[in-house]
Design a protein that fits this description.
This protein is mostly beta strands. The protein has two domains: 2-90, Immunoglobulin-like (Sandwich); 115-264 and 303-381 and 436-765 and 835-864 and 923-998, Maltoporin, Chain A (Beta Barrel), CATH 2.40.170.20. The chain is globular and about 95 Å long. The two termini are 23 Å apart. 48% of the residues are buried.
């Protein structure tokens, strides 16, 4: 019915269709989003990604062409059906209007803080299943690290560094002005692995996105309150416009191959016993015959394929505008049996009533997706451990074709492998994939509605409501004869159900009026956010009665896990903002917000207030600058933003598990204070040479105090631990973006852009409590531990510092060994590096020649460290190329010419807590992130019916890297498990084709 109504609103009494291309005169670059309106009416359209438009008009009507910062142009239609125009530069470029916090519109020149906008075309040039990954290298200060778990996996976002010791460090995601729930259900934590539950942001359809704005500082995001202490990623979705019906179709297909699979040797094999059995490792003799297992990586990994198809229909009349879309995503990963599918459906409607005094917006978004065998990093239930450590002299194909064999005595198929399958480390990779399968399913509904009433031309009231519900179902089956070290001999079955429901609502009054040389823009409002999360875990992992019968009733309660959790949080707020401008050259911003958080219940600090202040001066308006300057703006801002805590710390609750009660063991924290983030920044924006050169620069510093920590409680209290506030985490640095547009000829345009950011993180204070003796205070806080490598917060250090036992060296750097050749390690753990880069950069170039386009993006990270535990294990097992090279060279050189036996050395140094700093690498890397070569066929199927074809690639190759694997690989979005690889899925290279058509 919605679609029928939508189509019914688009009957326009036009005589003919006129189409064309709108370009910028100075650069000859197509203009995206230029408006083409029939003069004197609201009948209009906007240009597409190629600057193309099509509109129904009468012969005697006049078309108005407009674009922010350029002169408006008019053309009388007459008998023409094709009208191409070029818009000249205007002195009012700096009057561009942008969307800021709470969906409020502000003139770009008046902003007192740093923002960066990315058009929707940047997200769809070379699509990814998680749209946010398409922003990598394109935004200064935004660091994106995807999980190495395959299609549908989550990504970690950081703006200006980690700020919270125990809490969330990711920015708030906002869609069309409304905060979105972006929680993850579960993540890998530790060598026992764990699954990536995905994030909410990855669910969105990239073709529905009109643009993204990144609000980097706390000042920019202050109106969103504690939810936005880490910045805001604002997503604006597409909508309909008055004019004829527009149909957009796109199809993106890419093929994925491993970019940096480990380098394995095929020279040496495993020792062979008298019965023909292979040893577990590959420290045997040279292979004299065929190395049947040499090509096992090529045999195992397949060419992945990802297809994203989308269709959208938009249009409308003067009173109603509509947008509907459908998209489907289908992905087959590089690992066999790994699949992912997603369907997105979206509908948006805008109504203008009562002579345009009332505007009503409504949208509905439904997403359903399903994944099978998404990769789980770590040592256990991981097909890569068996694949990588398999001896080169073994027959890998035998175990591929016959991964199981029926056991007449047991009455079911059992795993076939070259080693004891009851060992907890290695298993047949094909057994893991086919007999330890797991699936994830998600259904999501997002519905929103808003109404705005224009009381006068300078005052309006606005109300908005949003409902966001996510329902997840996870299922895992463990077949009998899987390692009994971790699982029941007859198999296991596990179900997890997670349900998240968020309500959001706000009510605002907005004022915007000019008084002679003064302008006043102000808003006051109130909002609420209500979040409920429920989780159910049911596991048949106890005494399973019937092998391979996967039902929760098939087993006793003994050893099984049955748990139910429920969390509810509510945040009520009032807020206000005001901006005063003087002669459009000076602007003062003031905001204030007060939050009442349920997580701070039972404390006197349940209510907390925070302000922000900002000042902008347009130097080019205040004084006369050389003619080359179009804009020179200086800005500064300061803010204090609170950040509430996880639920139930101030008043811990009991837990119910397996029919019994787990009583609370934490002391109620009735004195808890919210985290307090103090942020300051200043910078400038510059535009020169008729806006051909643009630059912005920002310096910032943040201090996040009142962190919350936990320590062991005195036995006299009756509790095991207690919480307290302490600490100060500081981030400081700068961001800059520079771009240049150079017309080469009338038909040839080159545009280049460089973004660069630097961040320095310091733990200024950890436990600074004055009422506690120094010897009783915290010395460090552990964030995560993986095979002997600990991520710790230590006063004076930085977030992401790694500690482990280190290889003993003398003053000349020579490795010390015992008389058997085993490496010596330190008794205590020492600092070995930090996982966070200091510098991030991205350099993009686009070349447009007539209807042909060429684009590439190079990005890099400088500084930081990366721990490759996969390499350590492969060295220890003797399957790495390193181990073969050492044997060929007569042993491992300790650094002074002395060589020791390769087998003894690598067996020793590759063990848990033995490698220390030996397997810590520089994380510095530079790569060709994105490439696109395309051509637009104009009017191919008739006037206004275009077809664009592009060859695309992502993550194509490294210009430089030190680590054996991709140092940007992440096993988890959790705070303590980045910067390491332990049998994670290799990064992939993708090549493909992108088709898009407009009708």
């Amino acid at each position: 019915m919605f679609v029928l109504f939508f189509l019914g609103t688009n009957v326009l009494l036009a005589q003919k269709k006129v189409s064309g291309i709108v370009k910028e005169a100075d650069t000859n670059e197509p203009l995206i989003g230029a408006t083409v309106v029939v003069k004197g009416t609201t009948n209009g359209v906007i240009t597409d990604l190629d600057g193309h438009y099509a509109i129904e008009v009468n012969a005697n009507e006049v078309l108005q062409f407009a674009y922010v910062g350029l002169e408006t142009h008019e053309e009388t239609v007459g008998e023409r059906t094709v009208i191409n125009v070029s818009l000249a530069s205007s002195s009012v470029k700096i009057n561009e209007v942008v969307v800021t916090a709470m969906g409020l519109e502000r003139k770009a020149k008046s902003l007192t803080y740093a923002t960066q906008q990315v058009g929707g075309g940047e997200l769809t040039r070379a699509k990814e299943t998680n749209l946010i990954n398409s922003l990598q290298g394109k935004t200064a200060g935004l660091v994106i690290t995807p999980n190495s778990t395959g299609a549908g996996g989550s990504s970690k976002l950081l703006i200006r560094g980690n700020k919270s010791a125990q809490g969330n460090n990711q920015p708030l995601i906002v869609i069309d002005g409304i905060p979105m729930a972006n929680s993850t259900t579960t993540q890998m934590e530790g060598e026992f692995g764990g699954r990536d539950g995905g994030d909410a942001l990855s669910n969105l359809n990239p073709d529905d996105i009109a643009g993204i704005s990144v609000l980097k500082g706390a000042s920019a995001a202050a109106l969103y309150g504690s939810m936005a202490a880490n910045g805001v990623v604002m997503i604006t979705t597409k909508k309909g416009s008055a004019g004829s019906v527009r149909v957009d179709v796109s199809s993106n297909t890419t093929f994925e191959t491993p970019l940096d699979a480990p380098k394995l040797q095929s020279t040496y094999g495993a020792a062979v016993s008298g019965s023909g059995a292979l040893a577990q490792d590959s420290w045997g003799e040279k292979i004299s015959g065929e190395a049947k297992g040499a090509n096992r990586l090529d045999e195992f990994f397949r060419t992945g394929m990802t297809t994203i198809n989308s269709l959208s229909i938009s249009g409308g009349s003067e009173r109603t505008q509509s947008y509907v879309s459908y998209a489907n995503t289908s992905a087959n990963g590089i690992m066999p049996t790994n699949t992912f599918t997603r369907h997105n459906m979206m509908a948006k409607e805008t109504f203008k009533l009562f002579d345009n005094k009332v505007t009503v917006n409504a949208s509905l978004n439904y997403i359903t997706q399903k994944g099978r065998n998404r990769h789980e990093p770590g040592q256990y239930r991981n097909p890569l451990t068996g694949l990588y450590t398999f001896p080169a002299n073994g027959d890998f194909r035998q175990y591929k074709n016959e991964f199981e064999k029926y056991d007449n005595l047991k009455g079911y198929p059992v795993q076939q492998w070259y080693r004891d399958v009851n060992q907890d480390f290695s298993a047949n990779p094909y057994w893991v994939l086919h007999r330890n399968p797991h699936t994830e399913k998600r259904d999501r509904v997002m519905a929103s509605a808003s109404i705005r009433y224009n009381i006068t031309d300078y005052l309006n009231l606005q109300g908005r409501l949003n409902y966001d519900r996510i329902a997840d179902l996870y299922e895992r089956k463990i077949y009998a004869s899987t390692s009994t070290t971790l699982h029941n001999v007859n198999g296991e079955y596990r179900q997890e159900r997670d349900d998240s429901r968020q309500f959001y609502g706000d009510l605002m009054a907005n004022f915007n009026k000019t008084f002679d040389v003064w302008s006043v823009t102000a808003s006051v409002g109130t909002s609420f956010t209500d979040l409920k999360e429920t989780g159910i875990i049911a596991s048949g992992s106890g005494d399973v009665y019937i092998p391979n019968f996967f039902h929760l009733a098939n087993g006793s309660k003994n050893g099984s896990e049955n748990k139910r959790s429920k969390t509810q949080k509510r945040l009520n707020s009032v807020f206000g903002t005001a901006q005063i401008g003087y002669k459009e050259m000076l602007y003062l911003d003031v905001t204030g917000r007060n939050d009442w958080s349920s997580t701070l219940s039972y404390t006197p600090n349940v209510s907390y207030f925070y302000p922000s202040f900002g000042l902008t001066a347009l130097i080019n308006e205040i004084t006369t600058l050389p003619e080359a300057f179009n804009l020179l703006k200086a800005r500064a801002s300061y803010s204090i933003v609170g950040n509430d805590m996880p639920a139930y710390i101030t008043n811990p609750t009991h837990k119910f598990r397996n029919g019994s009660v787990d009583f609370n063991t934490s002391v109620p924290f009735t004195e808890m204070k919210p985290e307090k983030l103090k942020s300051m920044e200043f910078g400038f924006d510059l535009s020169m040479f008729d806006n051909h050169f643009e630059m912005d620069f920002t310096y910032y510093k943040t201090n996040n105090t009142n962190q919350y920590f936990s320590m062991e409680a005195s036995a006299a209290t009756g509790y095991s631990n207690y919480y307290f506030n302490a600490g100060d985490i500081q981030n400081s640095g700068f961001e800059t973006t520079m771009s240049w547009r150079q017309p080469i000829t009338a038909d040839f345009l080159w545009k280049t852009s460089l973004n660069l950011s630097y961040n320095n993180n310091v733990i200024k204070k950890l436990d600074d409590r004055q009422d506690v003796a120094k010897e009783n205070r915290l010395t460090h806080v552990g964030l995560g531990s993986l095979r002997g490598y600990d991520m710790r917060l230590v006063e004076g250090g930085s977030y992401g510092d790694l500690y482990s036992k280190t290889v003993v060296r003398d003053k000349n750097g020579v490795i010390q060994v015992d008389k058997e050749g085993n490496t010596l390690v330190s008794e205590d753990k020492e600092y070995v590096g930090n996982v966070n880069p200091k510098w991030n950069l991205g350099w993009s170039n686009s070349f447009n020649y007539k209807d042909m386009q060429f684009y590439f993006l190079i990005d890099g990270r400088i500084g930081g460290n990366f721990v490759d535990l996969t390499q350590a294990t492969l060295d220890a097992y003797g399957v790495s190329q390193n181990s073969a090279d050492a044997r060929d060279n007569g042993g491992v050189d300790l650094g002074n010419g002395t060589k020791v036996d390769a087998g003894t050395f690598y067996r020793s140094i590759g063990q848990k807590e033995k490698g220390g700093d030996y397997y810590v690498y520089s994380a510095t890397n530079f790569r060709l992130r994105e490439l696109s070569i395309g051509y637009a066929f104009r009017n191919l199927l008739g006037a206004g019916k275009d077809l664009g074809v592009s060859l695309i690639g992502r993550n194509l190759f490294f210009f430089y890297k030190d680590a054996p694997s991709d140092p940007e690989v992440s096993m988890s979005t959790s705070n303590g498990y980045s910067g390491s690889n332990y049998f994670a899925l290799p990064a992939t290279r993708s090549l493909g084709i992108n088709l898009k058509a407009t009708f």
